[in-house]
Sequence to fold (360 residues):
Amino acid sequence: MRFSMILSLVAVGAGAGLAPAADVRREIQFPDLPNARTLKCDLHMHTVFSDGLVWPTVRVKEAWRQGLDAIAITDHIEYLPHKTDMNIKFNRSYELAEDAAKLMNILLVRGVEITRDTPPGHFNAIFLKDNALLDTKDFYEVFDRAARQQAFITWNHPGWQGLERGKWGEAQTRLFERKQLHAIEICNGDEFYAEAFPWAVERNLAVLGCSDEHEPFRDEIVTPENHRTLTLVFARERTLDGLREAMFAGQTAAWWKNQLFGRDQELAPLFAASVEVSPVRKRTADSLWVEIKNRCEIDIRLECDGKDKPRLIVLPARATSLVVFPAPATGDPEPLNCRVTNFLVGPNRPLNVRLEIPRS
Fold:
């Protein structure tokens, strides 16, 4: 009787146009900061309206299922391999995705990819009002037109055609000096461009991680090492205005494999919000047992100072670990000075943190 009732409820739900039971959202676990929402974003992807292989609404559904807050569909302006089969309009992918994004509570950002030979390379312009206005052959005029729309501009995958061709060059310098370059995509899909990270740090440009996906996303088991490459944006509120404001302020981090790349002022509070150290659970003459909870998607790796302290502590993602420390001869345990080796605030510069064990 109960089984029949369940089947009836499923049938009623399907008849009412509700999402089928197979549509399940997997929430991405990165905590909010004290004064900011942590938004999970993919701001570079393609559809059939340029060289992608999916319809725009598919990108929205994928984003919902994978736990994202915001996406930008950035179809190419200049590269349109499907134009023989489709009536290409530069705003059409955004327009087709807009209703689905509202229904699924996904922040949808209007954008395009500016596609030129490397050098100077490819660039994304997002938060546009009209993509079609960027359809011009003059390279610098494209950015002038984007700037008039107050667009946020990213230099995409700098090293995709090799280090020599992907160097910071005259075009990047001119765009940066004219305030027409705001970010560098240091992580693209499975690629990390180590040489580009210092360029962003030195110039205080936002760092982005994006999928640049062209094909449909496959349903795979998500692990700290195997996940969609994303940007975390630390915004005052979960709105398009909040997202835009935070990106122009450089409040981002790139999440690639089991690593985060960003600024100290974002990664330090994210670490503090992610890691909770409990008071000592058990104490013997020479050992302390302490529970440490990790609330984020990364297996956090701590390299700690101290002659009698563990040198490496690994806190598995979304889990609580029981860690054994040497006990001091008397009194409370001293704080641990540690480096989070997979939270990077600069080239080969791990985030420095102080791990304190609360008093019982």
Residues 23-262 form a domain with the TIM Barrel fold (CATH 3.20.20.140). The chain has two domains: 23-262, 276-355. Residues 127 and 244 are 7 Å apart (CA to CA).
